[in-house]
Amino acid sequence: MIIKIIWDFFAMTREKLELIDQVRTPKLKFNDNISTFERLITIVMIIFNIISNSGARIEKLELVLDDDDVTLFLDLEEYMEEQDNDSINMLYLYQRRIYPFMNIKFQNSLSRFFKKQFSKKCFGNLKYLYCGKGIIKENILTSLSNICHNLSILKINEENFMDIKIPLISIIKRQKNLEYLQIIGNNNLNYLKDENANITEIISALESDSILLKKIELIDLYISSDKALKPFVKFKNLECLHLKGLNLPYKNFDYISTTDFPKLTSLILVKNYDGSSNFDQEPYTAIIQNQKISSNLKELQLTNYNITNNLELLKSINSNCKNLLDFAIQLTSQEDKIYLFSILNNCPMINKFHLEVFEEENSINNSDFIDELLKHLPKNLVELKLKGVIDTFNNLMKFFKNCDMVDLKIFSFNLCVEEFIEIEKCQEFIEGWSEKKGKKVESCQLIFTSNIEIRWK
Fold first, then answer.
1. In the structure, what pLDDT confidence band is assigned to residue 181 with cuts at 50, 70 and 90?
2. Which of 67, 93, 125 is where one domain is finished?
3. Domain carrying residue 70
4. Torsion of CA 137, 138, 140, 144, to 10 degrees
C-alpha cells in the first residue's frame, strides 16, 4: 500500500512542507486525461525525489505491488463507465491501463531515478531491499545493483526469473554483508519444471558471500541441477535454512547432509519434489543423522509429497533432536507412532506441533490414535495442527473431551471429505466446550473446503 500511504501523507503535510525553506513542494498540475493511478505514481516519484534531495540516508526499501494495491488503483479510477465489480472486467482494466503503465513508464522512471547521482548517496547504505512480483524489472534491478552494496537482507518475490536473472546475480555478487536471502517464486509451480522459475544460476552466485549468510529461504522454485546446493557447504554461519515447495533433484540434499552447520537452529524442508522415478524416497534422514546439524535444532519441519516410509527419519530425530520447540512431521505407518511419542516425550518444551498422517494401508485407527496422542502432547503446547487425524465430528468431540493437559491458543484440523459438516456446528460445539473451560474463542473459520482453524484469546 505504499502508493496510498504516500498519497495520504502528501495530502496531509503539503502545507507544512511548503513552510520549510529547504523543501520546495512542486506545483501539481495534471492532465485531465490521465487516470488517478498515473497521478498516484507521479506523486510517488515526486516523494522519492524530495527524500533524495533532502540528503536522507535510506536503509530500508520495499518495492511492492500486491493485490490490495491493484484493487486500490481500480477503485480510484475516475472513468465511471468502466467501473465494474465483476472480477473479469477489473482484470481487463488492470491489463489495459495499469499493467502497460507499470511495464513501461513506471519502471523507466524508477530506473532513471536510481541512476542519478543523489540516489547513490541516498541508497548507498541500504540494508534491507524487498522487491515484490509485478514491479521488479531488469532495468530497475540493474540500476539497484550499481548502488546497493551493503545489504543485510534481500527479498525477491517473482515468477519469471529468466528476465531478471543477470541483474539479480549481479546484486548478490556485489554484496559485502548479506545475512538473509529470501527468494519466492510461483506458488502454482507444483510438479512443473518451469524454466521461468529456474534459479540454479542465481544460487551459484551465493558462493561469493557464503561466510556471512545466516538465513536462506527458497520457496516455490525450480532447480534443474543436482549440484545447485553445493555452495551451501561453505555457509558455516547459517542459522536458518528453509526450502519449501522446490522442484529439485534430491541429490542436492547430499551436500547438506555432509556439511557441518554448528549454528543451525531452524531447518524447514517442506513439500520438495524430485520428479524422478524414485520420487517417493525419503530424502532427509541423512541430514538428521549428522549430529552437527541436528543436535542444536529448535525448529524442525520435515514433510514431503508421496513419502511412503518415514520410519528411519523418525528414528534419527528421536536419537539426535532433544531441544525442539517447533516440530512438524508426518506419519506413514503404524510403526512410526512409538518414535513420534518418544520424540514428544524427549522434547517437553515443544510449543508448536504440526502432524500429518499419510498412511496408505489404513493400519492406524484414528480414534485410538487420538487417545494415545493426547497422552504424549507436551504441556507447553500452544499451537497444534493436525491433518489426516480428526476425520469425523465424533473424533473432534473425543479430542476436546480429553484435551485437558494443554492450553492451546491455535488449533487446526481437516475433516474427511465424506464427512460434510457445517462450520456453524463445529463452532457451536467448540464455543460450548471453551466456555466450560473458561476460554474465549477469537475466531473459528473454514479454510479451503475441509480445514478448520480455531484461535483462542
1. very high
2. 125
3. 1-125
4. 130
